Amino acid sequence: MTTPATSKPAAPAQGTPPLPLTDTVLEALAITKRGVDELLIESEFAQKLARSEKSGTPLRIKLGLDPTAPDLHLGHTVVLNKMRQLQDLGHQVIFLIGDFTSMIGDPSGRNVTRPPLTKEQIEVNAMTYFKQASLVLDPSRTEIRYNSEWCDPLGARGMIQLSSRYTVARMMERDDFTKRFKSGTPISIHEFLYPLMQGYDSVALKADLELGGTDQKFNLLVGRELQKDYGQEQQCILTMPLLEGLDGVDKMSKSKNNYIGITEPANTMFAKLMSISDVMMWRYFELLSFRSIADIAALKAEIDGGRTPRDAKVALGQEIVTRFHSAQAADDALADFVNRSAGGIPDDAPEMTVDGAPMGIAHLLKKTGLCASTSEAMRMVEQGGVRIDSAVVSDKALKIEAGSFVLQVGRRKFARVTFTA
Protein backbone atom coordinates (compact mmCIF):
# COMPACT_ATOMS: atom_id res chain seq x y z
CA MET A 1 0.00 0.00 0.00
CA THR A 2 1.33 3.42 -0.90
CA THR A 3 1.51 5.93 1.93
CA PRO A 4 0.04 9.31 0.88
CA ALA A 5 2.73 11.69 -0.27
CA THR A 6 1.69 14.73 1.78
CA SER A 7 4.83 15.83 3.63
CA LYS A 8 5.17 16.70 7.28
CA PRO A 9 8.10 17.00 9.67
CA ALA A 10 8.89 13.83 11.58
CA ALA A 11 8.02 13.53 15.24
CA PRO A 12 10.47 15.20 17.63
CA ALA A 13 13.30 12.94 18.76
CA GLN A 14 12.90 11.21 22.09
CA GLY A 15 14.48 13.19 24.88
CA THR A 16 14.07 16.55 23.13
CA PRO A 17 13.47 19.13 25.87
CA PRO A 18 9.97 20.61 25.79
CA LEU A 19 9.50 24.08 24.39
CA PRO A 20 8.45 26.82 26.80
CA LEU A 21 4.77 27.78 26.68
CA THR A 22 4.45 31.47 25.93
CA ASP A 23 1.47 33.59 26.93
CA THR A 24 0.23 33.33 23.34
CA VAL A 25 0.40 29.54 23.44
CA LEU A 26 -1.35 29.40 26.83
CA GLU A 27 -4.11 31.65 25.52
CA ALA A 28 -4.52 29.46 22.43
CA LEU A 29 -4.66 26.39 24.67
CA ALA A 30 -7.39 28.00 26.81
CA ILE A 31 -9.43 28.83 23.70
CA THR A 32 -8.98 25.27 22.44
CA LYS A 33 -10.16 23.78 25.74
CA ARG A 34 -13.26 25.96 26.03
CA GLY A 35 -16.34 23.77 26.21
CA VAL A 36 -14.51 20.55 25.28
CA ASP A 37 -15.22 17.16 26.76
CA GLU A 38 -11.65 15.86 26.39
CA LEU A 39 -8.36 17.00 24.87
CA LEU A 40 -5.98 14.07 24.51
CA ILE A 41 -3.14 14.44 25.15
CA GLU A 42 -3.14 18.05 26.41
CA SER A 43 0.62 18.24 27.05
CA GLU A 44 1.31 16.97 23.53
CA PHE A 45 -1.03 19.51 22.00
CA ALA A 46 0.56 22.31 24.01
CA GLN A 47 3.91 21.34 22.49
CA LYS A 48 2.37 21.26 19.01
CA LEU A 49 1.13 24.81 19.58
CA ALA A 50 4.57 25.88 20.84
CA ARG A 51 6.32 24.38 17.80
CA SER A 52 3.78 25.99 15.50
CA GLU A 53 4.41 29.39 17.06
CA LYS A 54 8.18 28.95 16.86
CA SER A 55 8.23 27.71 13.24
CA GLY A 56 5.34 29.77 11.90
CA THR A 57 3.82 26.58 10.49
CA PRO A 58 0.09 26.22 11.18
CA LEU A 59 -1.23 22.98 12.63
CA ARG A 60 -3.37 20.74 10.41
CA ILE A 61 -6.74 20.30 12.11
CA LYS A 62 -9.17 17.76 10.73
CA LEU A 63 -12.92 17.35 11.03
CA GLY A 64 -14.58 14.57 9.13
CA LEU A 65 -18.33 14.53 8.52
CA ASP A 66 -20.26 11.89 6.65
CA PRO A 67 -23.02 13.48 4.55
CA THR A 68 -25.70 11.19 5.96
CA ALA A 69 -28.36 13.94 5.81
CA PRO A 70 -28.49 17.17 3.81
CA ASP A 71 -29.30 19.56 6.65
CA LEU A 72 -27.35 20.67 9.71
CA HIS A 73 -28.73 21.83 13.06
CA LEU A 74 -27.09 23.77 15.88
CA GLY A 75 -25.94 20.54 17.48
CA HIS A 76 -23.73 19.90 14.45
CA THR A 77 -22.23 23.38 14.74
CA VAL A 78 -20.73 22.75 18.20
CA VAL A 79 -17.70 21.08 16.64
CA LEU A 80 -17.77 23.52 13.69
CA ASN A 81 -17.55 26.41 16.16
CA LYS A 82 -14.44 24.84 17.66
CA MET A 83 -12.98 24.53 14.17
CA ARG A 84 -13.67 28.22 13.57
CA GLN A 85 -11.93 29.18 16.82
CA LEU A 86 -8.85 27.21 15.78
CA GLN A 87 -9.07 28.70 12.31
CA ASP A 88 -9.08 32.18 13.80
CA LEU A 89 -5.93 31.22 15.74
CA GLY A 90 -4.23 30.84 12.37
CA HIS A 91 -4.29 27.08 11.90
CA GLN A 92 -5.23 25.14 8.78
CA VAL A 93 -8.61 23.51 9.17
CA ILE A 94 -9.54 20.63 6.92
CA PHE A 95 -13.22 19.95 6.27
CA LEU A 96 -13.26 16.31 5.25
CA ILE A 97 -16.36 15.00 3.52
CA GLY A 98 -16.55 11.26 4.07
CA ASP A 99 -17.95 10.31 0.69
CA PHE A 100 -16.17 6.93 0.85
CA THR A 101 -16.89 6.12 4.51
CA SER A 102 -20.55 7.08 4.06
CA MET A 103 -20.91 4.05 1.83
CA ILE A 104 -19.79 1.89 4.78
CA GLY A 105 -21.97 3.54 7.43
CA ASP A 106 -20.66 4.68 10.82
CA PRO A 107 -21.74 2.15 13.49
CA SER A 108 -20.98 4.55 16.39
CA GLY A 109 -23.65 4.32 19.04
CA ARG A 110 -25.69 1.88 16.98
CA ASN A 111 -27.07 -1.40 18.26
CA VAL A 112 -27.90 -2.61 14.75
CA THR A 113 -26.09 -2.62 11.44
CA ARG A 114 -26.55 0.76 9.81
CA PRO A 115 -27.52 0.59 6.12
CA PRO A 116 -24.91 2.30 3.93
CA LEU A 117 -25.87 5.21 1.71
CA THR A 118 -25.83 4.97 -2.06
CA LYS A 119 -23.38 7.03 -4.08
CA GLU A 120 -26.28 9.13 -5.38
CA GLN A 121 -27.56 9.88 -1.85
CA ILE A 122 -24.08 10.89 -0.75
CA GLU A 123 -23.62 13.25 -3.72
CA VAL A 124 -26.95 14.97 -3.05
CA ASN A 125 -26.19 15.44 0.66
CA ALA A 126 -22.59 16.56 0.10
CA MET A 127 -23.75 19.36 -2.22
CA THR A 128 -25.31 21.26 0.69
CA TYR A 129 -22.97 20.16 3.49
CA PHE A 130 -20.09 22.52 2.94
CA LYS A 131 -22.37 25.38 1.93
CA GLN A 132 -24.07 25.12 5.32
CA ALA A 133 -20.80 24.58 7.18
CA SER A 134 -19.49 27.78 5.57
CA LEU A 135 -22.02 29.69 7.63
CA VAL A 136 -19.62 28.95 10.52
CA LEU A 137 -16.23 28.37 8.90
CA ASP A 138 -14.38 30.87 6.73
CA PRO A 139 -14.53 29.07 3.36
CA SER A 140 -11.57 31.02 1.97
CA ARG A 141 -9.36 29.55 4.70
CA THR A 142 -10.79 26.03 4.71
CA GLU A 143 -9.25 23.07 2.94
CA ILE A 144 -12.00 20.83 1.56
CA ARG A 145 -11.14 17.17 0.96
CA TYR A 146 -13.04 13.99 0.10
CA ASN A 147 -11.73 10.75 1.54
CA SER A 148 -12.43 8.89 -1.69
CA GLU A 149 -9.23 10.62 -2.91
CA TRP A 150 -7.08 8.08 -1.03
CA CYS A 151 -9.59 5.36 -0.12
CA ASP A 152 -10.64 4.45 -3.68
CA PRO A 153 -7.03 3.89 -4.87
CA LEU A 154 -6.37 1.41 -2.05
CA GLY A 155 -8.09 -1.43 -3.85
CA ALA A 156 -8.51 -4.91 -2.40
CA ARG A 157 -4.79 -5.40 -1.75
CA GLY A 158 -4.43 -2.09 0.07
CA MET A 159 -7.57 -2.71 2.14
CA ILE A 160 -6.23 -6.09 3.28
CA GLN A 161 -2.88 -4.54 4.19
CA LEU A 162 -4.61 -1.76 6.14
CA SER A 163 -6.77 -4.32 7.96
CA SER A 164 -3.63 -6.17 9.07
CA ARG A 165 -2.59 -3.14 11.12
CA TYR A 166 -5.39 -3.52 13.70
CA THR A 167 -6.59 -6.53 15.68
CA VAL A 168 -10.08 -7.86 16.27
CA ALA A 169 -9.41 -7.67 20.02
CA ARG A 170 -8.66 -3.93 19.76
CA MET A 171 -11.76 -3.41 17.62
CA MET A 172 -13.91 -5.20 20.19
CA GLU A 173 -12.87 -2.63 22.80
CA ARG A 174 -15.56 -0.43 21.29
CA ASP A 175 -18.46 -0.36 23.71
CA ASP A 176 -21.18 -0.71 21.07
CA PHE A 177 -19.44 -3.64 19.38
CA THR A 178 -18.99 -5.39 22.74
CA LYS A 179 -22.65 -4.94 23.67
CA ARG A 180 -23.84 -6.22 20.32
CA PHE A 181 -21.54 -9.24 20.46
CA LYS A 182 -22.67 -10.18 23.98
CA SER A 183 -26.34 -9.80 23.05
CA GLY A 184 -25.97 -11.83 19.87
CA THR A 185 -26.82 -8.84 17.67
CA PRO A 186 -25.12 -9.21 14.27
CA ILE A 187 -21.97 -7.21 13.49
CA SER A 188 -21.05 -7.12 9.82
CA ILE A 189 -17.37 -7.32 8.84
CA HIS A 190 -17.63 -4.07 6.90
CA GLU A 191 -18.43 -2.22 10.14
CA PHE A 192 -14.91 -2.97 11.38
CA LEU A 193 -13.64 -1.13 8.33
CA TYR A 194 -15.23 2.18 9.30
CA PRO A 195 -12.91 3.15 12.19
CA LEU A 196 -9.97 1.86 10.14
CA MET A 197 -10.84 4.05 7.17
CA GLN A 198 -11.50 7.08 9.39
CA GLY A 199 -8.13 6.48 11.02
CA TYR A 200 -6.45 6.18 7.62
CA ASP A 201 -7.86 9.63 6.78
CA SER A 202 -5.61 11.03 9.51
CA VAL A 203 -2.62 9.26 7.97
CA ALA A 204 -3.46 10.65 4.53
CA LEU A 205 -3.93 14.19 5.81
CA LYS A 206 -1.04 14.16 8.32
CA ALA A 207 -3.43 15.56 10.92
CA ASP A 208 -2.08 17.24 14.07
CA LEU A 209 -5.49 17.35 15.75
CA GLU A 210 -8.77 15.64 14.95
CA LEU A 211 -12.13 16.83 16.25
CA GLY A 212 -15.34 14.91 16.83
CA GLY A 213 -18.25 14.35 19.16
CA THR A 214 -17.89 12.26 22.30
CA ASP A 215 -19.37 9.32 20.39
CA GLN A 216 -16.38 9.44 18.01
CA LYS A 217 -13.63 8.93 20.61
CA PHE A 218 -12.80 5.34 19.63
CA ASN A 219 -12.53 6.22 15.93
CA LEU A 220 -10.29 9.20 16.68
CA LEU A 221 -7.98 7.02 18.76
CA VAL A 222 -7.70 4.54 15.89
CA GLY A 223 -6.35 7.38 13.75
CA ARG A 224 -3.78 8.16 16.40
CA GLU A 225 -2.61 4.54 16.51
CA LEU A 226 -2.45 4.17 12.73
CA GLN A 227 -0.32 7.31 12.45
CA LYS A 228 2.14 5.78 14.91
CA ASP A 229 2.18 2.58 12.85
CA TYR A 230 2.98 4.62 9.74
CA GLY A 231 5.83 6.43 11.50
CA GLN A 232 4.02 9.75 11.76
CA GLU A 233 3.73 12.05 14.74
CA GLN A 234 0.46 11.11 16.42
CA GLN A 235 -2.49 13.44 16.27
CA CYS A 236 -4.10 14.74 19.40
CA ILE A 237 -7.85 14.31 19.67
CA LEU A 238 -10.49 16.72 20.86
CA THR A 239 -14.03 15.61 21.63
CA MET A 240 -16.92 18.03 21.98
CA PRO A 241 -20.03 17.36 24.05
CA LEU A 242 -23.31 16.54 22.34
CA LEU A 243 -25.62 19.57 22.64
CA GLU A 244 -28.93 18.97 24.36
CA GLY A 245 -31.99 19.94 22.38
CA LEU A 246 -34.82 22.30 23.24
CA ASP A 247 -36.16 19.84 25.82
CA GLY A 248 -32.90 20.13 27.76
CA VAL A 249 -32.70 16.35 28.10
CA ASP A 250 -31.91 14.46 24.91
CA LYS A 251 -29.22 15.44 22.43
CA MET A 252 -30.41 17.72 19.65
CA SER A 253 -31.97 15.60 16.93
CA LYS A 254 -34.47 16.02 14.14
CA SER A 255 -35.97 12.65 15.01
CA LYS A 256 -36.78 13.95 18.50
CA ASN A 257 -38.08 17.27 17.14
CA ASN A 258 -35.97 19.20 19.64
CA TYR A 259 -33.66 20.81 17.11
CA ILE A 260 -32.91 24.23 15.65
CA GLY A 261 -31.97 23.96 11.99
CA ILE A 262 -29.34 26.41 10.76
CA THR A 263 -31.37 27.08 7.61
CA GLU A 264 -34.67 27.60 9.43
CA PRO A 265 -36.37 31.01 9.08
CA ALA A 266 -34.90 33.68 11.34
CA ASN A 267 -38.13 34.16 13.32
CA THR A 268 -38.44 30.43 13.98
CA MET A 269 -34.79 30.14 15.00
CA PHE A 270 -35.04 33.08 17.40
CA ALA A 271 -38.30 31.88 18.98
CA LYS A 272 -36.87 28.41 19.54
CA LEU A 273 -33.79 29.87 21.24
CA MET A 274 -36.00 31.97 23.48
CA SER A 275 -37.82 28.79 24.55
CA ILE A 276 -34.78 27.14 26.17
CA SER A 277 -34.56 27.20 29.95
CA ASP A 278 -32.59 29.84 31.84
CA VAL A 279 -30.24 27.10 33.05
CA MET A 280 -29.71 25.55 29.60
CA MET A 281 -29.06 29.03 28.18
CA TRP A 282 -25.52 29.05 29.64
CA ARG A 283 -24.77 25.68 28.07
CA TYR A 284 -25.76 27.17 24.70
CA PHE A 285 -23.60 30.23 25.37
CA GLU A 286 -20.61 28.01 26.13
CA LEU A 287 -20.96 25.77 23.08
CA LEU A 288 -22.52 28.07 20.47
CA SER A 289 -21.56 31.67 21.23
CA PHE A 290 -18.49 33.36 19.78
CA ARG A 291 -18.36 35.75 22.75
CA SER A 292 -15.23 35.54 24.85
CA ILE A 293 -15.21 33.57 28.08
CA ALA A 294 -14.76 36.86 29.95
CA ASP A 295 -17.80 38.43 28.24
CA ILE A 296 -20.00 35.45 29.09
CA ALA A 297 -18.78 35.44 32.69
CA ALA A 298 -19.56 39.16 32.98
CA LEU A 299 -23.05 38.62 31.55
CA LYS A 300 -23.68 35.75 33.94
CA ALA A 301 -22.58 37.93 36.86
CA GLU A 302 -25.10 40.57 35.79
CA ILE A 303 -27.88 37.97 35.70
CA ASP A 304 -26.84 36.64 39.11
CA GLY A 305 -26.93 40.24 40.31
CA GLY A 306 -30.56 40.69 39.37
CA ARG A 307 -30.68 41.44 35.65
CA THR A 308 -33.46 39.48 33.92
CA PRO A 309 -32.28 36.26 32.23
CA ARG A 310 -34.44 37.21 29.26
CA ASP A 311 -31.90 39.88 28.30
CA ALA A 312 -29.13 37.29 28.07
CA LYS A 313 -31.35 34.95 26.08
CA VAL A 314 -32.20 37.74 23.64
CA ALA A 315 -28.49 38.47 23.21
CA LEU A 316 -27.82 34.80 22.47
CA GLY A 317 -30.76 34.55 20.07
CA GLN A 318 -29.70 37.64 18.17
CA GLU A 319 -26.09 36.46 17.92
CA ILE A 320 -27.10 33.09 16.48
CA VAL A 321 -29.68 34.53 14.07
CA THR A 322 -27.18 37.15 12.88
CA ARG A 323 -24.64 34.42 12.17
CA PHE A 324 -26.98 32.37 10.02
CA HIS A 325 -29.08 35.19 8.55
CA SER A 326 -28.19 38.85 9.17
CA ALA A 327 -28.27 41.58 11.82
CA GLN A 328 -31.45 42.99 10.27
CA ALA A 329 -33.10 39.56 10.38
CA ALA A 330 -32.13 39.28 14.06
CA ASP A 331 -33.73 42.65 14.83
CA ASP A 332 -36.87 41.68 12.91
CA ALA A 333 -37.02 38.33 14.71
CA LEU A 334 -36.86 40.08 18.09
CA ALA A 335 -39.67 42.44 17.06
CA ASP A 336 -41.74 39.49 15.84
CA PHE A 337 -41.16 37.62 19.09
CA VAL A 338 -42.19 40.63 21.18
CA ASN A 339 -45.31 41.00 19.04
CA ARG A 340 -46.24 37.37 19.50
CA SER A 341 -45.59 37.51 23.23
CA ALA A 342 -48.03 40.40 23.48
CA GLY A 343 -50.65 38.34 21.67
CA GLY A 344 -49.98 39.82 18.26
CA ILE A 345 -50.17 37.90 15.02
CA PRO A 346 -46.95 37.60 13.02
CA ASP A 347 -46.90 39.24 9.62
CA ASP A 348 -45.77 36.04 7.95
CA ALA A 349 -48.68 33.93 9.27
CA PRO A 350 -49.90 31.82 6.32
CA GLU A 351 -53.35 32.39 4.86
CA MET A 352 -55.44 29.40 3.84
CA THR A 353 -58.92 28.42 2.81
CA VAL A 354 -60.29 25.20 4.29
CA ASP A 355 -63.67 23.55 3.56
CA GLY A 356 -65.73 21.07 5.55
CA ALA A 357 -67.46 23.28 8.14
CA PRO A 358 -68.63 22.49 10.72
CA MET A 359 -65.66 20.45 11.94
CA GLY A 360 -64.20 19.37 15.26
CA ILE A 361 -61.29 21.48 16.48
CA ALA A 362 -58.85 18.54 16.47
CA HIS A 363 -59.61 17.63 12.86
CA LEU A 364 -59.38 21.28 11.80
CA LEU A 365 -55.96 21.65 13.42
CA LYS A 366 -54.76 18.58 11.56
CA LYS A 367 -56.26 19.75 8.27
CA THR A 368 -54.56 23.14 8.53
CA GLY A 369 -51.26 21.47 9.29
CA LEU A 370 -50.87 23.19 12.66
CA CYS A 371 -50.86 19.77 14.32
CA ALA A 372 -49.50 16.57 12.85
CA SER A 373 -52.37 14.43 14.12
CA THR A 374 -55.71 14.69 15.90
CA SER A 375 -54.16 13.12 19.02
CA GLU A 376 -51.51 15.86 19.08
CA ALA A 377 -54.28 18.43 18.62
CA MET A 378 -56.18 16.98 21.58
CA ARG A 379 -53.07 17.21 23.75
CA MET A 380 -52.51 20.82 22.75
CA VAL A 381 -56.11 21.70 23.67
CA GLU A 382 -55.72 19.95 27.03
CA GLN A 383 -52.55 21.96 27.69
CA GLY A 384 -54.25 25.26 26.83
CA GLY A 385 -52.05 25.69 23.77
CA VAL A 386 -54.79 26.33 21.19
CA ARG A 387 -56.35 29.73 20.53
CA ILE A 388 -58.93 31.08 18.11
CA ASP A 389 -58.65 34.85 17.66
CA SER A 390 -56.55 34.96 20.85
CA ALA A 391 -59.21 33.13 22.91
CA VAL A 392 -58.03 29.89 24.52
CA VAL A 393 -59.89 26.75 23.40
CA SER A 394 -60.60 24.44 26.34
CA ASP A 395 -63.24 22.10 24.86
CA LYS A 396 -61.75 19.18 22.90
CA ALA A 397 -65.21 18.48 21.41
CA LEU A 398 -65.68 22.03 20.12
CA LYS A 399 -67.23 22.24 16.63
CA ILE A 400 -65.96 25.10 14.51
CA GLU A 401 -68.46 26.82 12.21
CA ALA A 402 -67.69 28.52 8.90
CA GLY A 403 -66.01 31.92 9.11
CA SER A 404 -62.65 33.70 9.10
CA PHE A 405 -60.35 33.60 12.12
CA VAL A 406 -56.76 33.19 13.30
CA LEU A 407 -55.75 29.77 14.61
CA GLN A 408 -52.79 29.55 16.97
CA VAL A 409 -51.02 26.48 18.36
CA GLY A 410 -48.36 27.05 20.96
CA ARG A 411 -46.28 30.21 20.75
CA ARG A 412 -45.04 29.92 17.19
CA LYS A 413 -47.71 28.37 14.94
CA PHE A 414 -50.30 30.66 13.38
CA ALA A 415 -52.65 30.52 10.41
CA ARG A 416 -55.24 32.98 9.02
CA VAL A 417 -58.07 30.61 8.11
CA THR A 418 -61.08 31.13 5.90
CA PHE A 419 -63.32 28.19 6.83
CA THR A 420 -66.12 27.27 4.42
CA ALA A 421 -68.87 24.64 4.31
Would you tell me which CATH topology of the largest domain applies? Rossmann fold
Mean pLDDT: 86
Count structural domains.
3
Structure classification: alpha/beta
Helix count from the secondary structure assignment: 17
Rounded to the nearest angstrom, the distance between the terminal CA atoms is 73 Å
SSE string, helices as H and strands as E: HEHEHEHEHHHHHEHEHHHHHEEHHEEEEE
Give a count of the beta strands, DSSP E runs of length 2 or more: 13
Instruction: Name the beta content range.
Output: 5-15%
For the record, the CATH architecture of the largest domain stands as 3-Layer(aba) Sandwich
State the name of the first-level CATH class of the largest domain: Alpha Beta
Rg of Cα set: 25 Å
List segments where confidence is low: pLDDT < 50 over at least 5 consecutive residues.
5-10, 109-113
Query: What is the CATH superfamily of the largest domain?
Result: HUPs
Major sheet characteristics? 6 strands, mixed
Helical content stands at 40-55%
Physical arrangement of strands within the biggest beta sheet: 1-6-5-2-3-4
In one word, what is the shape?
globular
Polypeptide structure, described:
The protein is of the alpha/beta class and 421 residues long. It has helices at 23-33, 42-55, 74-88, 119-133, 148-151, 155-163, 168-171, 175-183, 189-205, 217-229, 266-274, 278-288, 293-304, 309-324, 327-341, 361-368, 374-382; strands at residues 38-40, 60-65, 92-97, 142-146, 209-213, 236-240, 351-355, 359-360, 386-388, 391-392, 399-400, 403-409, 413-420. The chain has three domains: 23-240, 3-Layer(aba) Sandwich (Rossmann fold); 266-341, Tyrosyl-Transfer RNA Synthetase (Orthogonal Bundle), CATH 1.10.240; 351-420, RNA-binding S4 domain (Structural Genomics Hypothetical 15.5 Kd Protein In mrcA-pckA Intergenic Region, Chain A). Helices cover 45% and strands 14% of the residues. It has a six-stranded mixed β-sheet with strand order 1-6-5-2-3-4, with helices on both faces. Strands 7-13-12-9-10 form a five-stranded mixed β-sheet. Helix 1 (23-33) packs across helix 2 and helix 9 crosses helix 10 (217-229). The protein is globular, with a radius of gyration of 25 Å.
